[in-house]
Amino acid sequence: SLRNELSNLDRKHVLHPSTNPKNQVDHGPKIIFTGGDGIYLNDIDGNTYIDGVSMLWNVNLGHGNKELAEASYKQMVEAAYTTTFYGYVNEATVRLAEKITSLTPGDLNTVFFTSGGSESNDTAFKLSRFYWQLRGYKEKKKIISLRRGYHGVTVAAQRATGIDAYRNFSGSTDPDIVNAKPHLTECELGDKNHPEYEGCIRDIIEKEGADKIAAVIVEPIQGAGGVHVPPEEYLQAVRKLCDENNIHLIADEVICGFGRTGKMFGVDHWEIVPDFMSVAKGITSGYAQLGGVVMTEKIRDEFAQYDAMLAHGFTYSGHPTACAVGLKNIEIIERDGLVERANTMGRELDKGLKYLEDKYTFFTNRRSRGLLAGFDLMKDPEANIPFDHSARAAGNLVDECYNRKLLIRPFDFEPGMNIVAIAPPLTISKNEVEKIIHIVDDSLTAFSKKI
Ligand code: PLP
Q1: Do 290 and 372 have their domain in common?
Q2: Residue 328 DSSP SS3
Q3: pLDDT tens-digit profile of 318-338?
Q4: pLDDT reported for residue 302
Q5: Domain boundary residue among 315, 335, 355?
Q6: Is 122's C-beta closer than 6 angstroms to any atom of ligand 1?
Q7: Cβ(31)–Cβ(43) below 8 Å
Q8: Whose CA is nearest to atom 7 of ligand 1?
Q9: Which helix H or strand E contains 122, and what residues bound it?
Q10: pTM tops 0.95
Q11: Which keywords accompany this UniProt record (predicted)?
């Protein structure tokens, strides 16, 4: 069969990202997708799944969107690819930059385009360091990032990532990146007696010296670290800390951007303006590979005086077809009110999760903003006792959901951590949210019988 043929070829010829290679080679691919529509995905065996995490939290418009396909086709037949090196440009790139910067807060008014999130973060690090160089600060190079932050897998983004498996993969290191120890706590507000002060961003700045630090990078809401919404004053405190110390703040909006959290950008929840903003994923809803770094006028003005070649850029920086898809994608998000929809459907999702939290004692700590949601599984939440790590609680629940044709994601990379994330396309209906909750409910019941 075609399934067997593709499976055998995959086992032999494809090395999969974020996958266990032995499993892959022994058992072949888990799903071979063939198509989709809205929140649904079809596979080669005739199954239909609900995509409960928008694949990698990026398919904001849902699957099978013909308008995006048409925008791509139209640009491809006209000028599929031209470069933006050497001062060349094309209409789609310019229009998209104008559109994005009309939506970003404050004076974030210039975009450097990339092909994805990792490239965007590496670019933000380099542009931040370059800015300080131009200003005469030769030593300002270090980047501070957070525990459980996820910023990608290129060498710099990898080292900024605060998840050990990714951070340490293949043993590469970059001494210019420091990972803060505490995780989204109020220690940044300045109380030196805070129990987690040691190793927090403020403490690192004091110890390393502000003259050695170029930037702090944070996700407004952490995604792959397990959907962590920061405490209310946190991002304002980090912004202030950066201002006081002449340090850039980079907001990694790769997941939060373009409506996912019920605002156009994650920082809009706390009304802060970063110096750089990394975007990718939802910028095209995954229909084309695109990312970008948006920077303030102050930073761009500094670069504008640099009278030599800016020696940074990707072959696909400002890819016309990807930009045309991005432009259409944002047009649809605005036209169809999808940011507001993420809010209203997010409230429905939260209602459903609250029902589950009330029903199951081991279901706890539900949190969400818009359609970015997560919850914990714990043996005894009252007494703060986690499930035994070997029991794979989150993985088990996600398997139960998978058996019922719902795709969601477990996060269990630290002992005692059993987090499950739900982040469906922003186009989801109330009825479809209820379907997801219903499947998770059945899966929790099955799970509770096993543990
Ligand atoms: N930053 C965040 C917050 C992400 O979630 C991701 C990917 O999941 C990245 C960066 C890396 O993006 P990419 O995989 O497009 O390189």
Answers
A1: no
A2: helix
A3: 999 999 999 999 999 999 999
A4: 98
A5: 335
A6: no
A7: yes
A8: 152
A9: helix 117-134
A10: yes
A11: Aminotransferase, Pyridoxal phosphate, Transferase
